[in-house]
Each structure stands twice: as C-alpha cells, then as structure tokens.
Amino acid sequence: MLRVQDLVTAYGKIEALKGVSLEVAQGSITCLLGPNGAGKTTLMMTVAGLLKPRSGSIRFLDRDIASLPPHAIVSRGIALVPENRLVFPGMNVLENLRAGAYQRSDAFDEDIDRVFTRFPRLKERSAQLAGTLSGGEQQMLAVARALMSRPKLLLMDEPSLGLAPLVVEEIFRIIAELHREGSTIFLVEQNAHMALRVAQHFFLIEQGRVTFSGDPGSLAEDEVIRRAYLGSAR
Amino acid sequence: MALLADFIQNTLDGLTAGASYALLALGFTLIFGVLRRANLSYGPAILFGAYCATWISASFQVGLLVLFVITVGGTVLAGAYVERLCFAPHRRGSAIAAMVASFALWMQFEELATLALPRHLYGFPALYEGGPLIFGPFFLRVESVVMLLTGIAICAALWAILYRSRFGTAVRAVIDDPAAAELSGINVPRVFIQVFALASAIGGLTGFLIVSSQEQVTPMLGMWSTLKGMLAMMLGGLGSLPGAVAGGLALGLLEAHSQWYLGPQVRDLLAYLLLFVLLALRAPWMSTRSAY
Amino acid sequence: MDEHAIGVLTNIALFSFVALSAYLLLLAGELSFGQQAFFGVGAYAAGIATAMLGLPLPLAVLIAMVCGAAAAVLVGLPTLRLRGLYFAMATLAAAEMLRILFELFRWQVEIDGEAVGPDGTQGFRGIRWIFERGVEPLHFLVIAWLLLGVVVVMLMLVERSKLGAAIRAIGEDPPLAGAVGVDVGRLKLGVAAAAGALAALGGALFAHHNTYIEPRNFDIMLGVHSLAYALIGGLGTALGPLLGVALDIGLLESTRIFEGYRMIVFGGLVAVLLVWRPRGLLDERVVHWLRTRFS
Asked: Which of B206, C6, C22, C117 is most exposed, with minimal Cβ within 10 Å?
C-alpha cells in the first residue's frame, strides 16, 4: 500500500534519513522500531507531507505523494497521529472530531457515533476543552480525530509516549481492534514489546537507515528490544 | 447639568470613533490570530484603496457605491500583495522578517499615494448630505449611526462565519493550532490567503466609511489606521476578536473624554500611557496569545 | 570633497547610530519600535546642554548618552518580561509618549536678546555650537565617523566575547540561556541601556549638525527605518546596520537615481531581500564564512 524508496530527508546539512526503503502491506500492522534520533519521526512527518524529502520516492496506492502538501495527503487517505498528540486545545472534544472530518463532504454523524462507541471516555467528555484532558484522553482524541477522515492508512508516531501502562494497553487494544476491522496501520514505537505483540511485520531503523526487516518471530525479542533502544553494536 | 450633557455627547462621539477603531482592530486581529504576525501594512493597504477611490472620483463622476467597491477592491488587492510578499514566504520562518517586510511595503504604499495624489488633503464625496439627528441637547451625525450599525453588522457576520460555516471551522482550527489543522486536512496556506482577503475587505469598508464621513482623505490615513487598530487590538487582548471590539470601543471613549477635558495631545498621551501601563502590569486579559 | 558628498556621508554616520541601536535589541531577540525616542532624548539633551547651558559639545554628548541610557532603563524596567509583539508595542507606546511630551515641552532662556530653547511643536532652533566655533563640515564628518568607528570596533569586540555569545543566546532561546546561567533580565536591561545611549549619541550629533530639531523628526517612521536598516544590512555583525543605512541614504538618496521613487524602490528591495535572506545581507552565516576565509 505504501512504498518508500531511498528516501532522503535533511534538516539543512544534517541528513536525518539517509536513504530509507520500506513497504507497508495493505491490511497489516507494520511497525518501525529504533532508538531515539534514528529518524522515525522524520520519516512519519515526511510521509505526512510536513517535511519535504530531498530525494527518493513515496508511493501510496501506486501514486507518488512525495511532493504533496499535508492537506492533499489527507485527502489521499493517509492520517497521522503525531508524536505530541496534536489536538485543538481551545476546542471541545466534539469540535475536535468535527475538525478531523474537515475534508469530508458527506455527513459524518455516523462516524462520530462510532468513535464515541469505541472511545466511551471521549463521549463522556464531549463538551470538555481538549486542552484540559489527561494525556491518555488526548491520545485517544488524537486517534479519534485521525479516524474521522476515514483514512486508508493510519500513521501513528509513538502512541504510548508518556502514558501509564494501563492506558498503553488500552491504546494497543484499540490498534488491534482497528486492524481486525480492516485498517492498515503504520506504527512507530519505542515500546518494542507492545508493538511486536500486534505487528505482522516490522522494520528497524538506526541512524537514518533501515537495518532490519522481518516478522516478529524472526529475531529474538530481546535482540529486537536491544537494537530498538540502543542500536546495534558499532 | 451641562456637565452631564457634555459627558453624554462625548460618550456618543466616543462610541462612534470606537466603532471605527473596533472595525480596524477586528481586521488586525483576524490576521494576527491566524498568521500569528502583526501586519504593519494593514493601514497603508486601506490608504491605497481610499486613494484609488479618490483618484477615480477626482477624474470621473461616479456614485458612492462605485467608490465603495473601488475602496474595498483596492484594499483587498493591496492586502494580497502584502500577503504574497511579506507573509507567505516567511510562513514557517522568521516572524521578525515578515513584520519588517510589512513595513517596508508600508513605505511603498505611502510614497505611491503621495506620488499619485501629491496634496496634503483631498476632498471625498460625502456619505450623507443632510444634517445630524438631534435629540434635545444631543446630536448624532447620521454617518456615526452608519458606522455604529456597520460595526454591529460586521461583528454579527464574523460570528456567523466563524461558528456557522465550514470556512469558519477551518479558521478557528488554524487559530487554535496550525499544525493540528494541517494534519486534519485543512489547506492552511489557502486559509491564510482567505483570511487576509476578509480582513482587507473589512479594512476597506472601514476606510471608506471614515473618509466619506469626514469628506476628506489625507496621506496620514495609513499610519493612523495602523496605530489605532494595533492600539485597540492590544488594549482588548492580543488575538481575541471580542477583545478587539472591546478595545476599540474603550479607546474611542477614552479619547473622546480626554480630548474634551484635556486637549488632543493629552488625549493621545493618555491612550499610549494606558497601553504601556497595562502591558507593564501584564494585565491578564492581554496575554491571550503568545509573542508574535 | 564636495559639500553634497560630505552631507550624505555625515547622515549615514548619524543614522547608523540609531540603526545600531535597533540592531542591539534585535540581537537580544527583541523588536523595538521605539529607538527613535532615545535619538530624540539625546538630541534635546545635547541641544539644551550647549545652546542653553553653555556647555562644550563633548560634555553635552556625554550627558546625552547618559540621558539616553537612563530613559531606556526607565522604559526597559517595566517591560523586562514582555516578549514579541507585546514588547514591541510597549516600546512604541513609550516612544510616542516621549514624542508627545516633546511637543508639550517648552523651556526657553534668553541669550543675547533671543529666546533659545525647545518650543513645543515649533521645535528647538539655534543649536549652533559647531558653527559658532567654526567647525567645518568636513571636520564634523570626521568626528562623527571616528565616534562611529570606535562604537563599531567596541561592538565587534563584544560580539567575539562571552558577553556577545550570551546576548545572542538570549535572542535565540531565552529559557535555555537562563538555564545555562545567563541572567536574562539584567543582560536585557544592559543591552537596552547601551542601545539607548547609542541612539542618544546619534541624536546629539544630529541636533548639532542640523541646528534645528522638532518632535516630528523623532516619529515612528525613524524607528521603522532603523529597524529596516539593521535587518536588511544583516544581523551577523555590527557592520550590517551600517550597510543598511548606506544602501538607503548612500546609494538611493544621494545618487538621486530614483528621485521621487526612493521609498518605493527601497521598500521593495527590503521585502524581496528578506525573502531570500531573512537575517539580512551580512547574516551570521555569511559573516562566519567570511571569517573562516580570511583568518
């Protein structure tokens, strides 16, 4: 569904992505693991259109999207739940969801109901300002908001960051649920343990390059975790 | 009793001036709220529009409606020029560069205006030919009523746009968090352009009302509009639309009363003093928005 | 050298002081719309000192600088924790207040049967110290440029020092600067005082060069121009603001190429240049490149 080839993204002189190639199969949960600074967030932001790559290609459903602005990428069917959970702090939960559906020209009340069923806590707080929600609730709202655009591919950047273990379990339960219902999810995580439990395929990225590609059984879990947190021995 | 009559008359005059300041501040605040930058060419763009209309009216016999359209059109055109040259290139870049660029264009507009129409003062067709309305000891010019009603109408229209239209949702989203807005599929650069056009249109409308009420245009209109708009915007709280209206009205009232008792220079002095003190004390309603 | 050229070069020097004043604050990360007020304070203080109190010019200039610094601190203290547009508007308000006070300020003494002194909106005439002592325009030019040279050299030395690094640190990331031990508040106040003194120095010289000053000389346009000169010349070095002034006053005005269109050309130039170079022609990268090339 998503094919990234030889992607290079740079900040001025510093190349954060040095030629990344990977694939996300339709209907799968694919995971990108790696230590801090390896380029995971940079890759997510480049796919979402927030950063412009210097070279390389990004193809989604067989069409090139590397040069598109963020709103065009959303209209192609990709939604990003970013690392810092971006919600609209001054708007309440319901308005946040409505904003997420901005590009939808059809009626989306049904989607709102579905989101509220999936995230009952959000329904309780539907009139509350997003800025006053707890970390876990904001994360759920960010996911819910992304879902409102009915994406074909959901990108998630470190959904477990800064959340309590119970909340993390709930988030991953929802990820698994979404997958069961047919969504394709591309997930960046530091929490390798939780990620490997749900993923069908994973990539390891270190220092701007993909160093491993396989399914969760192919590397011993502690080896994966070591490389995800520390990188391979140099 | 005469004291009370003066007070009421000054209050009426103050509200009228305040309505024009509120309108100017609204335009300023729309741009500031969405782009998070101050547009110092806001007043000069209005000057451009007003001068276009003045030039046409000096050369041809045209009706007020045509002049109105030209003023608004000229302001929107000038605003688009400013947006493209000063704000679009620095969207993700330096706020200071954007603002300094905007007063570079201010210099351009001022010189252009004085080149096209070199005199210090030009007549402008009157909005209304008749005399003021009189209620006992008080009088209210019809132009003032128009200004007040326009102020109310624009506020209502803006509220409707922001809270009842899809465009308004996008605008509020961008004001709240531009990055989240991008990820929600909102075309943020296009929202900037549209908001700029809306703010310029409001500015042009206000400028037209001002020059046709006073029946004159001067090159000082540019700097004057910017100063009053920014002053009112800051008094009411940076980035807040209701604050812009409150700030404008407050400024108008302050000016009217202090001018009556203390003269025009002290009037301006007091307005600036009030702003300075409020800023120094960091009055709580003023920090609704961060930095630029 | 012909009179016109001397006049242009002198003006470049005088306005460089107020451009450097804006530049210092820009380094510390703040936009100030009010440096023109300190230019005015310096002008009035020096004028009063020589024309009314009979003091010699060097002393008058010193007094002017002290007054400029004091006024800057007076404005800077209450606004110390303001940032961004809030700070800019506060400086604008302060500058306009000062200008209006100049309009209301009347103090005249009788000298040789003539009334001399600030006369509100009528201005302050008769600041003739340099003419009464037969100082030639060329000499004055040299004096102005010598003073400017000293200031620029001092600034360049400061920039290479830890103090300079600290100032730029405040400009880039104030919380970070504070976290590494920079006393942000005191340093900002110090920069403001220095900027005020610099602008006042320029104003003192301006008053004597023109012999006549009025409140209108010190309006927002001057402040806006100073900022434009500083930013377009470049924030990488103290020579940047001088370049900005030279571009406008030197190139455009004096050559009269664009007679009547000067502001249109200069304004357009500034806006276009900033798109390409948001921190000016001599920005930090260029200066760094030049330094590595020539050392």
From this structure: C6
Q: Which of B215, B204, B264, B173 is nearest to B23 (CA)?
A: B204
Of B173, B188, B189, the CB nearest to A99: B173
Contact B115 C85 (CB under 8 A): no
Q: Report d(CA A89, CA A79) in Å as an integer.
A: 19
Structural domain range at position B130: 16-225
The pLDDT confidence band at residue A221, using thresholds 50, 70 and 90, is low
Minimum distance, in Å, between the CA of residue C269 and any CA atom of chain B: 8
* H, E, C per residue of C225-260: HHHHHHHHHCCCCCHHHHHHHHHHHHHHHHHCCCCC
Interface A-B, measured as beta-carbon pairs within 8 A, has a size of: 64
Please enumerate in sequence order all residues whose Cβ is within 8 A of that of C273, keeping only pairs 6 or more positions apart, or say none: C232, C280, C281
Residue C85 within a domain: yes
User: Is C93 within a domain?
Assistant: yes
Touching partners of A (3+ C-beta pairs < 8 Å): B
Predicted local confidence at residue A193, as pLDDT:
80
- Subunits with 3+ Cβ pairs within 8 Å of B are A, C
Residues of C in Cβ contact (< 8 Å) with B104: 228, 266-271, 274
C39 domain residue, yes or no: yes
Query: Which of B172, B180, B185 is the closest to A86 by Cβ?
Result: B180
Q: Return the SS3 of A185.
A: strand
Strand partners, A214: A202
Check A74 against B181: CB less than 8 A apart.
no
B 14-73: CB under 8 A from A: none
Number of folded domains that form chain C: 1
pTM to 2 decimal places: 0.87
The CATH class of A2-230 is alpha beta
